[in-house]
Amino acid sequence: MGYGGPAGLRAIGETYQFATQASQGEFDRAFRKSAVNMIGAFTGLPSAQVNRTLDGLEALYEGETENVLAPLTGAKKR
Fold it and tell me: CA 22, CA 59: separation in Å to the nearest integer?
């Protein structure tokens, strides 16, 4: 995903992305990320860090990484 527009209009794009993911009917990583991004766009919460933390926790749980700092830094793709 590239440039999302100015901060004031980013919520529109995030809402569209969330609707696309919700219409697929699967609660997967892409759905979670789009939901967090949409909430972050409307509330001002740090959605990038929330997504990084959740990715790190998921990677630790699934055994994709042994780095205990993964929830803080995110999981590196292999």
Answer: 23
Q: Is the dihedral angle over the CA atoms 29, 56, 15, 3 positive or is it negative?
A: negative
Q: Is the pTM above the cut of 0.90?
A: no
pLDDT digits (tens, 9 = 90+) for 27-74: 999 999 999 999 999 998 999 999 999 999 999 998 888 888 888 887
In terms of DSSP H, where are the helices of the chain? 10-24, 29-43, 47-62, 70-73
CA distance 35 to 64: 23
Yes or no: say if 47 and 41 are a contact pair by the CB < 8 Å rule: yes
58 vs 23: CA distance, rounded Å? 24
Domain limits, the chain: 7-45, 46-78
